[in-house]
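Quick entry between incubations.
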Amino acid sequence: MTAHFYGTKKYVLNVLQRPDLHQHHADLYAASVVLQITYGKPAPSSFEDPAIVAIHKIADRFLGMLKPGAYLVGRLPWLRYVPGYAPEIKRYRKEELEVHLGQVDATRRSVEEGSDLPSFVRYLVENPDSHGLDEETLAYLAGPCTTSVGMYTIVMAAALFPEEQEKVLAEIDGVFGGQKALRWRPILPICLYHQAFANFVWNGYHIPAGATIIGNNWGISRDTEVFPDPETFNPQRWLNDQGQMRPQNEIRFFTYGFGRRVCPGQYVASRSLFVTMSLLFWSFRISQDPSQPIDSNA
Ligand code: HEM
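Done. Structure below.
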């Protein structure tokens, strides 16, 4: 939790100084939490810090490559063996690996120099027998994240729905308000690519082994049977008549994906959103600049 609290104070102070750059501050916060938890790296204070620049460059490329149809090799896997196909992918991989290996080396050095900061990579390098991963795989385990987009979305929802902001503030209930914002505008409109490893039938459709399946978060968020009037921002829809959370078989949180590939970072991300947004709403009232109306679908 230390990573969350230190970074949160800094995020709120940054918003105080430059509210117009709130998205940058959220990016810096989210990347700092990942660097701290993964490598035990003290939170960088500037958006221009090389580690922060590198993490964002990797995240941007990664998200671009994930777009369905971005590369034909997704549909024609044999293309990967064609010499010269998409040379930038190989270049990106080389550059990313250098960044990740550099961070693993820096963690190793800081442990040798007596640092007592705990981290995920520190555990892995100190306990090689517990996982048996090679250096490259170990370096890749730490990835970029999407928490900051969740932060912008909640800030945007607060500006557009001031009455709901007041209700959230009354209970400092980042859970329903935050959850609601992520239902209203899912951070990742689609999940990652999955592959069926056996033939199966779903709702009358034959899905062959090897087919690519992509969860449609945006479609789920617009399912009027579960979320009637889906464009309405209404945190109360998560509660029953007694004010208690409705059971999972009635309404379910889907923003982090589902099944065996569900987001492993969801607990870190939810805590980050809860802590940052609670302190932000406690510190400020967020409102829309009437001269520049927000386009919530942009
Ligand atoms: C609000 C923030 C976040 C959201 C909305 C989010 C959402 C998602 C979604 C939708 C998936 C795909 C799940 C699927 O295909 O079924 C995913 C996968 C993943 N997420 Fe997150 N995530 C967030 C934060 C994080 C953080 C902070 C980390 C790491 C520290 C992380 C690490 C990962 C990893 C490694 C995967 C790939 C899992 C796999 O393919 O097995 N995420 N995330």
